Amino acid sequence: MGLYKNDKISGKLMYAPIGVFDSGLGGLTLFKALRKITPHENIIYFGDTARVPYGSKDKEQIKKYTCQDINFLNTFFPKIKVAACGTITSCLNEIYDDFSSPIGVIHPTCLSAVNKTQNGKIGVMCTEATKKSKAYDTCLLRLNSNVQVFTQACPKLVEIIESGKFLKTSPELLDAVKVYVGYLLDFGVDTIILGCTHYPIIKNIIEKVSFGKINLIDSGFETAKFVKERMADLNLINDSVMVGYSKFYVSGDIEVFSKNAEVFLGYNISENVFKININGY
Length: 281
Fold this sequence. Notes:
The protein is an alpha/beta fold. The protein is 43% helix and 15% strand. A 5-stranded parallel beta sheet has the order 3-1-2-8-9, with helices on both faces. Helix 12 links the parallel strand 8 and strand 9 (273-275). Mean pLDDT is 92; it is low at 1-5.
């Protein structure tokens, strides 16, 4: 996305949609926050549900998928693109320069964590690929060189959530969360970054396991706030009085996505969910 500083250009773009993309269901945490704080915006959402999870794949594959996801979103001429995925965000700087890159989740999330920690010990829950990239570590230490960062890869969580097992807390999900969160609590962290946008979907379980005593940083919510601020700076806020439209595209099963999305969002979106062949992009 370029920086639209020309008032005439930005005036035309304010009615264009926001493009949000993720490896699957997780980006709905960011979509939900965006829909709440920017009700007049039009939003196009793409979830690559046929190829989820991204976090266990190698970097070159993730970069290839990211480019295809963005190529698809570009067909809607979005005014701003948002990578609602920590794994994707960790690779963006290897694909795009500062001006053309979509907004990612890492910087907004790290900024909130640095501001909220009291003891300087920050935990990060993320995918294996994101941990390997050290993207969160680098960003946190750039913002505050005095913090200590403890990173825990959570390879089981995305697949459990995508399968719908979050609908009723399964023993498998609870056991996994206990292991991942317990590892971070042993280091005395007072703040945990939910570094994959899938994780806020099970925020209530993570809060229970951490005894409600930890600052949990929701990457979807923090990024949604950042996106609104960025659009305001660029004069891209939609000034319509009408509620914006939402359209969802997936590469996998429509019914599974619609069912899980309805539980999380609280309303039925099935009439606005469409399947695409992402390999064509």
